[in-house]
Amino acid sequence: MELGLEGKVVLVTGGAKGIGEAITRSFAAEGAIPVIMGRNRDEAAQLIDELRNNGGQVAAEHVEMTDLRELQAAVGRVLDSHGHIDVVVNNAAMNDSVDLTAGPDAFRASLERNLVHVYALVHYCLAALKDSCGTIVNIGSKVAETGQGGTSGYAAAKGGLNGLTREWAVDLGRFGIRVNAVIPAEVMTPMYQRWIQTLPDPEATLAQITSTIPFGRRFTTAQEIADAVVFTASPRSSHTTGQILYVDGGYTHLDRAATIRDLGE
Ligand SMILES: NC(=O)c1ccc[n+]([C@@H]2O[C@H](COP(=O)([O-])OP(=O)(O)OC[C@H]3O[C@@H](n4cnc5c(N)ncnc54)[C@H](O)[C@@H]3O)[C@@H](O)[C@H]2O)c1
């Protein structure tokens, strides 16, 4: 399927690693120009070299997303170099285990890490998105729907992200801007690795979680998330807006019975 993404400038926050890396790769493969916005210069440099050596177009802005002044300046540089911004993928986040014992300052800091920069980036890109009739894809988490325990800040941020997806779809539809969210549940990435290693028996927990994912008894791959993001952002998805799309093998919503027996049995 021709997705019509050639030459589109796509901001991918946290686009050098994990799910973001897969999203960057997929947009590059479609002939778009992904701009990795993230804090890790070395990882971005490696990915850029590889993609450019394979004929892809890609750029990077080194930015700590919580530094909003830096973020605004980065958006300005992208517009100076490319002249337009067509897609914003809000992917950067961190499940930071800020729980109810952590206190209001830590909670506020978690919202800064996981939600405030999403609002800020879209705010800074708004005029450009109106010019391009662009699109926004927010990467949420099942935690907004299911809870996880011990992560109040992240849960609130991801709940807020779903709210903003609907709010912005309403607010920006008149400018031809579509806004959707893609929601992973269990994807093996550096963040997930870090989290699982904090548990008393990582291997046993991993096996237990895997066994309860209804479709295929396996984790979702980062590529499967990226495929959904690229399609949702593309003109081939032109009448889809305000949707919260769970790409999770049925983990979040299917009948509890499906978590203990194979689908199709
Ligand atoms: N991995 C999963 O199973 C899973 C499940 C649900 C939701 N998600 C969501 O998917 C998205 C990507 O997660 P991942 O697992 O690939 O994470 P990851 O930690 O493996 O990669 C995230 C990338 O974003 C960058 N980043 C994060 N915060 C940043 C900041 N403040 N400033 C600059 N760069 C920043 C990191 O440096 C990293 O490169 C996140 O929004 C996460 O909430 C992931």
List the helices and strands and how they pair.
Blueprint: E1 9-13, H1 18-29, E2 33-38, H2 41-53, E3 59-62, H3 68-82, E4 87-90, H4 104-132, E5 135-139, H5 143-146, H6 152-172, E6 178-183, H7 190-196, H8 202-211, H9 222-233, E7 244-246
Helix pairs in contact: 1-9, 3-4, 4-6
The structure holds nicotinamide-adenine-dinucleotide.
As a whole number of angstroms, the C-alpha radius of gyration is 18 Å
How would you classify the helix and strand content by structural class?
Answer: alpha/beta
How would you describe the oligomerization state of the chains in this entry?
single chain
What is the chain-wise order of helices and strands?
A: EHEHEHEHEHHEHHHE
The level of helicity is: 40-55%
Number of helices: 9
Q: Unreliable segments (pLDDT under 50, ≥5 consecutive)?
A: none
CATH topology of the largest domain: Rossmann fold
Major β-sheet, in short? 7 strands, parallel
- Give me the count of strands: 7
Which ligands are bound?
nicotinamide-adenine-dinucleotide
Strand content: 5-15%
User: Which shape, going by the Cα principal axes?
Assistant: globular
CATH class of the largest domain: Alpha Beta
CATH fourth-tier homologous superfamily of the largest domain: NAD(P)-binding Rossmann-like Domain
| Strand order, sheet with most strands | 3-2-1-4-5-6-7
At CATH level 2, the architecture of the largest domain is 3-Layer(aba) Sandwich
Overall mean pLDDT: 96
- Ends apart, CA distance between termini: 33 Å
Number of structural units classed as domains = 2
